[in-house]
Design goal:
five-stranded mixed beta sheet, alpha/beta, 2 domains, Glutaredoxin, 32% helix, elongated
């Protein structure tokens, strides 16, 4: 009987937290779950964006990406600021995502960075999924943790290697995005995307070749700089999303796009070969 009363009290306490009831001042210390590979993403209560209590994450779409955050963590807010391009490229009907906040859902932050509020859940300060934030999880349709990382690049690599996402479909989505970013002028002439790195000697040589041989006469050119570059220089590959999609391991790398499904990637080659590939 005593145990039943304690359990009932905890359920009422959590429900009050979801609704934001200030009458209950008891704030128990958050329980550290520290979820790892093989654990199930269940057994704890969550609050949705409407303040309603839910007992588990819906995974009807198949796999799900969980992004665990706290609103007083600078790197968490920076991830929210930058993550839209990753979500646009990688998520789909078969790969859903949720932000899970340790405390309250920071509505103003989400509105500022155009994050759909319905994809946000709160632990109401009762649990910690990990001792580190931000932490990202990939869970399968049975809500089992398949992979855990603090790095978006590692999450992308796992999604691609395990074929949770199709690389050809990813590239087609990326091609469409870059064509639109460059003015959607695919029928005027092909687009040449140059992935570049500030101060890179080979990139400087490539810039000179493009200028000397008037490559711009044949292409609409879009330059994309490596993650971490000052955005005042131009478009930056935020979170290295395009680096991962196009498997870029050398700068400069060129992607020639005639349309969203017709591409050619020019990687590390001698200058003469690069020029020939650009002109033909």
């Amino acid at each position: 009987m005593r145990r039943a009363l304690i359990f009932l009290f905890l359920v009422v306490l959590f429900a009050s937290s979801c609704k934001g009831n200030d009458a209950l001042v008891l704030e128990p210390k958050a329980e550290l779950l520290d979820l790892i590979y093989g654990d199930r993403m269940e057994g704890f209560y969550l609050c949705d964006s409407h303040g309603e209590e839910i007992q588990s994450i819906s995974s009807d779409s198949g796999h799900t990406i969980i992004i665990y955050l706290t609103d007083n963590c600078k790197s968490c807010i920076e991830l929210v600021r930058d993550i839209n391009i990753f979500l646009e490229m990688f998520t789909s009907e078969k790969l859903n995502y949720f932000f899970i906040w340790q405390d309250d859902i920071p509505v103003r932050v989400l509105e500022k960075y155009n994050i759909p509020i319905d994809n946000n859940l709160s632990l109401a300060g009762k649990y910690k999924l990990s001792s580190i934030t931000p932490t990202m999880f990939i869970i399968n349709e049975d809500r089992e943790v398949m992979f855990v990382s603090n790095e978006v690049e590692q999450i992308m690599e796992k999604l691609i290697l395990d074929k949770i996402v199709d690389i050809h479909h990813l590239r087609e989505k990326a091609n469409k995005y870059l064509l639109k970013k460059n003015g959607d002028r695919e029928f005027e002439k092909p687009t040449l995307v140059m992935f570049s790195m500030e101060g890179c000697p080979d990139c400087i040589k490539a810039d000179k070749i493009i200028e000397d041989y008037k490559i711009a006469n044949s292409y609409n050119i879009l330059k994309v700089y490596r993650e971490g570059t000052d955005e005042s220089l131009g478009m930056v590959d935020v979170l290295s999303v395009f680096k991962k999609i196009y498997e870029i391991d050398w700068y400069p790398t060129f992607v020639k796009l005639k349309n969203s499904s017709d591409l050619e990637i020019i990687r590390e080659v001698p200058e003469e070969t690069m020029l020939d590939m650009l002109l033909n």
